[in-house]
């Protein structure tokens, strides 16, 4: 592809130039040569195209420079729409916006500095509230956690408290504890009787 074309161009540059030049339309050949194309199409006679032609080729285009300026009606329409504004007005508005933005940023920085000064106190309060919340944890919850841990240690393996078998094991452990408590109570009563007899 590319290498064959380059090799052909190197062998006979004149023929190659003719080939490329001939593949262009006459209008485009004039433009490629740096010339000014003739007016062929209707759109080229419109005011916008004439302005563009004058901008590209200058006075040699034959276009009247007066059409490059807006008419009185166009100026009045632009003023009514407010599309274009005076430079001084734009500068004033930009300065006002800039000052407003700077004031907002300064207020934000002042707020940050004020909060930074309060930070150690707020942090101490937060940590104290966390400690208090930890202390105020429900005693039942702590007792339940201890109970779960005891049962898991008693049976020798971990079991999820939501498992139905856990409830059975809990009841079994409670019965065993009741039996142990009864036996301990009986032993205590026997010791008292023996002590009373002696």
What can be said about this structure in brief?
One of its GO terms (cellular component) is ribonucleoprotein complex. This protein is mostly helical.
What is the typical, i.e. mean, pLDDT?
83
Question: Into how many domains do the coordinates divide?
Answer: 3
Which structural class do you get from the secondary structure elements?
A: mainly alpha
Helix content: over 70%
Order of helices and strands: HHHHHHHH
For the biggest sheet, the summary is: none
Q: How far do the termini sit from each other?
A: 123 Å
Global outline? elongated
Identify low-pLDDT runs.
none
Q: Number of helical runs?
A: 8
Q: How big is the Rg? A: 49 Å
Organism: Haemonchus placei
Family: Belongs to the mitochondrion-specific ribosomal protein mL64 family.
Protein name: Large ribosomal subunit protein mL64
Coiled coil: 109-193
């Amino acid at each position: 592809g590319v290498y064959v074309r380059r090799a052909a161009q190197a062998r006979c540059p004149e023929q190659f130039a003719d080939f490329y030049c001939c593949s262009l339309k006459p209008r485009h050949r004039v433009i490629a040569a740096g010339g000014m194309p003739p007016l062929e199409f209707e759109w080229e006679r419109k005011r916008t195209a004439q302005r563009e032609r004058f901008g590209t080729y200058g006075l040699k285009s034959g276009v009247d420079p007066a059409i490059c300026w807006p008419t009185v009606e166009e100026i009045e329409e632009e003023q009514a729409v407010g599309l274009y504004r005076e430079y001084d007005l734009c500068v004033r508005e930009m300065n006002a916006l800039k000052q407003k933005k700077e004031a907002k940023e300064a207020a934000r920085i002042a707020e940050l500095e004020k909060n930074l000064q309060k930070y150690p106190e707020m942090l101490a309060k937060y940590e104290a509230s966390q400690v208090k919340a930890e202390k105020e944890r429900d005693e039942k919850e702590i007792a339940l956690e201890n109970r779960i841990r005891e049962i898991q240690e008693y049976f020798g393996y971990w079991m999820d408290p939501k498992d139905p078998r856990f409830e059975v094991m809990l009841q079994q452990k409670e019965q065993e504890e009741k039996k142990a408590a009864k036996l301990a109570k009986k032993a205590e009563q026997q010791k008292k009787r023996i002590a009373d007899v002696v």
